[in-house]
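Worked example 3. Consider a protein that binds adenosine-5'-diphosphate.
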Amino acid sequence: MGTTLFLASAIGFSLILLIVFFTKKKVKSVENRIFSIISIVNALGLIIELVLQILVLSTPVELFQNSLLITIWSKLYLIIMLLWFAIFTIYAIQISFSNNIKKTSLFCLSIFFISSLLICILPISKYYDGNIMYTYGAAVNVLKIVGVISMISWIICLLINIREIKAKKYYPIIFVVIFIFISSIIQIYKPEILLLTVIGTLSAYIMFFTIENPDIKLIEQLNEARDRADKANSAKSEFLSSMSHEIRTPLNAIVGFSNGLIENDKLDSESKDDVKNIIMASDALLELVNGILDISKIEAGKLEIIDTYYSFPKIFDELVLLTKARLGEKPLEFNYTYDKSIPEYLYGDATRVKQVILNLLTNSVKYTNTGFVNFRINSIIKGDVIRLIISVEDSGIGIKKENIDKLFGRFERLGVEKDTTVEGTGLGLAITKKLVEMMGGKIVVQSVYGKGSLFTISLDQKIVSGSELEKLKKEESAKEEGPSLFEAINKKVLVVDDNNLNLKVAKRLLDPYKCDVECVGSGFECIERIVNGEKYDLILLDDMMPKMSGKETFDKLKEVPEFNIPVVALTANAISGMKEEYLKYGFNDYLSKPIEKDELNRVMKKYLK
Ligand code: ADP
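Given these inputs, the predicted complex is written out as C-alpha cells:
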C-alpha cells in the first residue's frame, strides 16, 4: 500500500510539472522538445507502474503466475523504461555535441525498437509471495543491458565535455548516473524496490529548474538580445559621432567662408544673394545633422536637461526675430505676445525651451501659405513655479484627423510627400515631444484639415528671486556695456588644427578682432612653440587630430612649467555632453564647429578683453 501511495504522489508531482511546463510560454529549442517528450514518457511510466501495482494487489497469489495481464503490463513497463533511456540518451548527445538531431534520434530509436521487440518475444519471470513482487529473466535483462549501454554513453558524453561539467545542462545527467548506480545496488539486495520512474521524475524536475525552465531560457534569450542591441546601439552612437564630425568639418568651412564673403563690399548684390542661399542651405544641413544627433541621443538616454538661469524676454525676442527671418517673403501676418506678469528671469533649460518653441513656429511658417501665425505665451504662477502655456496657431494646411496620432513619430511627414517644396525631415515634432516630456511638460495639438492648427505646450519653470535675481541683473548690465565686437590689438592667438581649411576659417573669423593669429597644424608644433617660450593670450585647440589629439596635447602643455594660457577646445564632435566633458578635463572653454560668431565673441571677450 505504501508503494502505491508513493507512486501516486510521484505521478502527482510529474503531472504538476507537465502542467506548469506546457502552460508556460516556451522557447522553441530542440532541448525543450526533448524535455517535453521525456516528461510525458516519465508520467506514462509512473501511471503504468501504478496500474501494475494495483493489478498485483488485486490478484490472489495462486492466480499470479498465470496472469497474462500482469505479464503484458510488466513488459509494457519495461518498454516505456527503454523509451525513457533512449530519449535521455538523445538529450545527452544533443547537449554535448549539438549534432544532427535526426540522425541521433534515428539511431537511438532503432535500438529502442529492436530491444522492445526482444522484450516482447523473450520470456519474463515474475515473483510474488503476497507481499513483495518483482520480475526477472531474459526480457528484464534486455532493459538492464540497454540501461548499462545508455549510461556508458552518458558518461562518455560527460567525459568528452569534462571542461563544461559545471554547466547547468549536465546536472540532470550527473544526477541520473549517480542515482541509477545507487538504485542498481539497492536492487541487488531488494529487487522489489523499483526506483527508475521516481528517478525519472526527479531528473525531470532538475532539468526543469536548471536548463529547461522556460523562464531561464527566455531570460537568457532576452539577455542575448539586449547585449546585441547594446552593441548595435553603441555602434550607432559611434557612427553618429564620426558622421557628425565628418559633416561638420566641411560645413565649418562653408559657413565660415560664406559669412566672410557676405561682408565683402566688393561683391555685387547678385553674388551676395547667392552667398545668402549658400548660408541658408548650410544652416538647413546643420539643423538636419543636429536633429539626427538629438533624436539618437534622446533614444540612447544620453540627452540631459541642463537647467540654468535665463532671461525670458530675451528668449522671446530671439524667437520672434528668428521667426520673422523665416517668414521671408511669405505674405503672412505674424502676431506675438506674452503675458507681462511672467518674471524676467526663469530657471530651466533655456536652449531646449527655445528649441521646442522654435520648432513649432518654424512648422507653422512652413505649412501656412496665407493668413496668420499667432504666437502667444500665457502663464499661471503657483509659489515659485510658473506654468508657461505656449501656443502657436496658424491658418495653414492643417492636419487630417487620422494623421494626428502619427504626428510625433520619427521621420513622419504627413501629406507633404508630393509637395517637395516644403523642406523637412519629420524629426522636428518627435524631438519636440520628447524634449517637452523630459522637461516635465506636455504638448497637445488641435487641427482642422485645410483650416489650420494649434499646438500648445505647457511647461513648468522656476521663478528666480532674491539674491540670485540681483546677481543676474548685475551680470546682465555688465554684458550690455560696450560694443559687442571689440578689437584685441596686441593680443596673440594660437589656432591648432590639422585641417588647413579649418585654420583658414578660424583666421577669417578672428580677422575682425585685429589680433595676431598664428596657425599650426599639429599638437607637436603647438607644444614646440610653447616650450620655445612663445607667448600667447589664447589657444584654440582642435581635439580630433591624428597622432596627437587635442586632449593629449593639452596634457603635455600642462606639464610645461608656468604654463597658464587659457586653452579652448575646438571640436566638430557635437555629441551630447561634450562641453561638460571638455570643461571637466580642464579646458577653459569649448567651441563647437561650425564656429558660431556669437559663441566666438563670448570666448574672445572672456579671455582677451
Ligand atoms: P518636418 O517639418 O521636418 O517634416 P516635423 O516632425 O516637424 O517634421 O513635422 C511632422 C509633420 O507634421 C510635417 O511633415 C507636417 O506634415 C506635419 N505638421 C507639423 N506642423 C504642422 C503645421 N503647423 N501645420 C500642418 N502640418 C504640420
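Take a moment to read the result before moving on. The chain has four domains: 2-213, 232-300, 308-481, 492-608. Residues 363-364, 367, 394, 396-399, 407, 412-416, 424-430, 453 surround adenosine-5'-diphosphate (CB under 6 Å).
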